[in-house]
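Students often ask why we bother predicting the structure of a whole assembly rather than each chain alone. The short answer is interfaces. A chain on its own may look different once its partners are present, and contacts between molecules only exist in the joint model. In this exercise we take three input lines together and write out one structure for the complete complex. Read the inputs first and try to guess which parts will touch.
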Amino acid sequence: MTARGRLWLFLVGAAAFAMVFVTACFSLPPFGSVHHPYGERAVRAALSHHTANVIASVNFDLRALDTLGEETILFAAVLGTVVLLRQTADEQRTRPEPAVVRPRVRWFALAMLPFAMLIGLYVIAHGQISPGGGFQGGVVTATALHLLYLAADYRALERVRPVPLYEIGDAAGEAAYVVTGLGALLAGSAFLANVLPLGTFATLSSGGTVILLNAAVGIEVTSGIVVLLARFLDQAVEIGHADDGNDHGNDGKERV
Amino acid sequence: MTDVLIVVALLLVAGAATAAVLNRDPVRQALVLSFLGLALALLFTFLQAPDVALSQLAVGSAVTPLMILLTVRKVRRRPGDSTDKGRER
Amino acid sequence: MRADDGWLAVALVPLLALVPVLWRVSRGAPEDRLIAQNLSSLLGGLALLPAAQGFGRPAYVDVALVLSVLGPTGTLIYARFLGVLPGSRLVRRTALLGVPAIVLPLCVAAGPGRAMAKLLLIGALLIAGSVVTGAGGGRGRKAAADGGRTA
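Now the answer. The structure tokens for the assembled complex follow.
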């Protein structure tokens, strides 16, 4: 397709999108008004299911099916990365030199690791009562693990982080979500319906299936991000072309 | 007062997004992107959406920069790039 | 001005300080950009804490808690790849003066309890992160020494 053709295609598409978008915007309730038709119903539903964080209730109870879709997108994205960034026949793995890290940074990163991990788990565990949840906490927990890479080097991280285990965790988290949904079917209700005892409002055990689904997402996101970064780190640090013998010595210090 | 905070955060977001586009080097863009992520997180918090702010912070402050920088390192180390064409960009 | 607006006005100070920081992060030498990135997460945390109080939503401090952990992590990631961790008296001073100036009044407002412990933890994490990432010490030995394949 010529550049001119592409431009026209874009302009037609953009015009059509703009038209639909503007029409949709005019049908929205006014911004900043006191009347929120969806919000009022969502808050009522969340309170009736003893979930203090209404967002968690929307994500894991009212619209749990949407979250299953989002979780599957992440799962598929990680799977795609694993396939794309695998070690191919013309690539070879070389052991990188151990990195030299300043003692202060090493000390700080190591001291921060348990804190960061604890905060990640805290954000996951309190998803139903305060802002946060499986996704946010999962990313923090996975990031915390990589403080070990900053404290030492990739080899140190590889020693304590068995990627196959996280690959299983990724799949198990995804499966646990679906199984919880099917459990609701077995209990005689709809797929992903909230069928468990709702617990006491604003405690860690409140919210029924919200807790289980939140935990499933937490496991999947933590494992998924670890696997994702493992593939990126493998490619950037260890895997090179078989004929890439003469390193030119620029990599540790890319100048901006 | 909330409106003032929202307006300042919006301006920061607009400024950071423009700066990210105007920078051409991926590493510089990554740094501006970090700032943009922070400005967005502040904006979301001021708009009473802490859950979204947390998502933005979690992804934007460490994982995205790490992925961008690892990709840049991998791409710049390609064989052949070291001699001639890798230097021109 | 209501009492809540007072806290929001406090939040406005670090927020406005982010404007020149944005200028530094988008222009200038790599070291300056990295310092600006470091400073931005500190100022972000300092804006979030009084904002949570001003909105009357103590749970919002979780955002600052996550930022206090991930902000320095992000800076260290950049430092690893750029091969520099520039020292900055500005970052250290902002942390040592700004964090107590904002966290201690918030602790008084919160009163003894879990909320106060959380605020103190966030304050400690913000200071520790800024002092370590802002202490400098010239260029990393790693970047100067190794030939490339370092992890």
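Check your guess against this: The interface with chain C takes residues 94, 96-102, 104-105, 108-109, 112, 115-116, 119, 123, 126, 130-132, 136, 140, 143-144, 146-147, 149-150, 153-155, 237-238, 247-256 of chain A (CB under 8 Å).
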